[in-house]
Design a protein that fits this description.
elongated, about 15% strand, five-stranded parallel sheet, alpha/beta, Rossmann fold, 13 helices, hydroxypyruvate reductase [NAD(P)H] activity, about 325 residues
């Protein structure tokens, strides 16, 4: 009888509890050996030495320590790291790639809740639901003078980034009578046509869209992508939605635009993050802020564990992993 693959879990207890449910662990233990009671939070922990020395795979999650040279030296048999969460940038180091260890991420599974959140926010923001709701207690029921043009029909939605999330948002807007513009330096005309959208440079997109939704990664070149100049290009009544990273937006400039009443904003991410309770954004009726919850939450997190375990099974069967991370693509991933 051939020996079953052996591996370890490296994540915080809360990540194990939410991502690796009993059902997910049962599937994992159906094709591999793992000790679910042992969660590695420190690769130098003597209690983990034997397990790590035998591990052919790691299932990682939030709270996994960096996989640096010292950690990998303790895992001479390691062949693959499957991450039951989104970004791998916090724990997968250059040393992992140098040693030829395969890496998979459940970012695709995490993208779906973000896309659903974005679609919901687009619909509600275009209805001016957040602003009118916030004004009910002080200004009462809105009369015709306070009802701005609203609704999604025949509006223009601009997506900054044809990322995995951006593409899912495109799919979820197909049932609506909307014009979709996309700005992405890695998307060409043929690719845009394949997605059924119009390719636009960022300034054109910003100046002609009723809603601008950000789906770009946090990179040096995307810092304050939406600066004072670009925010000023947005038409009066425009709506900015950010589910990407807070640093993509110049917060001070956004406060000025929203405080004037010219723009509305829906922010699931902020700069700084977390945001202080007395921050001016929180006092504006036309700004809706949520605490970085667009991604998988609660029962949705098990989807990340299911995705990771399924990818591990594919790898062990000699198949391609759906969430395989390409080191060449890493710089422009979230």
């Amino acid at each position: 009888m051939s020996q079953r693959p052996y591996g370890a879990l490296a994540m915080a207890p809360y990540a194990r509890a939410s991502a690796l449910t009993d059902e997910v662990l049962d599937r994992l233990r159906g094709f591999a050996d793992v000790e679910p009671a042992l969660l590695v939070g420190d690769f130098a922990d003597p209690a983990a030495r034997d397990v790590l020395g035998r591990a052919e795979f790691l299932v990682t999650g939030w709270g996994c320590p960096p996989l640096d040279a010292a950690a990998l030296d303790a895992m001479p048999k390691l062949r693959v790291v499957v991450h039951a969460a989104g970004s791998v940038k916090h724990h997968v180091t250059e040393e992992v790639w140098r040693r030829g260890i395969a890496v998979s991420s459940a970012a695709d599974a995490n993208a779906t809740p973000v896309a659903e959140y974005t679609r919901a926010m687009i619909l509600l923001a275009l209805k001016r639901a957040f602003t009118l709701s916030a004004q009910l207690s002080t200004m009462g029921w809105p009369g015709p003078d306070r009802r701005q043009p609203s609704g999604i029909v025949r509006r223009t939605v601009g997506l900054v980034g044809a990322s995995r999330i951006g593409r899912l948002v495109i799919e979820r807007l197909r049932d609506f009578d909307v014009r979709i513009l996309v700005s992405d330096p890695y998307l060409d005309e043929a690719g845009a046509a394949g997605l059924g959208v119009e390719l636009a440079d960022l300034d054109t997109l910003v100046s002609t869209s009723d809603v601008v939704s950000l789906h770009a990664p946090q990179l040096p070149e995307t810092h304050h992508l939406m600066d004072a100049r670009r925010l000023a290009l947005m038409p009066d009544g425009g709506i900015l939605i950010n589910t990407a990273r807070g640093s993509l937006v110049d917060t001070d400039a956004l406060v000025r635009e929203c405080a004037s009443g010219r723009l509305d904003a829906v922010l699931d991410v902020t700069d700084p993050e977390p945001i202080d309770g007395d921050h001016p954004l929180l006092a504006l009726p036309n700004v809706f802020v949520t605490p970085h919850l667009a991604g998988a939450q609660g029962t949705e997190i098990a989807l990340l564990g299911e995705y990771a375990v399924a990818d591990l099974e594919r790898f062990l069967r000699g198949e391609s992993m759906l969430g395989a991370v390409d080191v060449a693509e890493l710089p422009r991933l979230a």
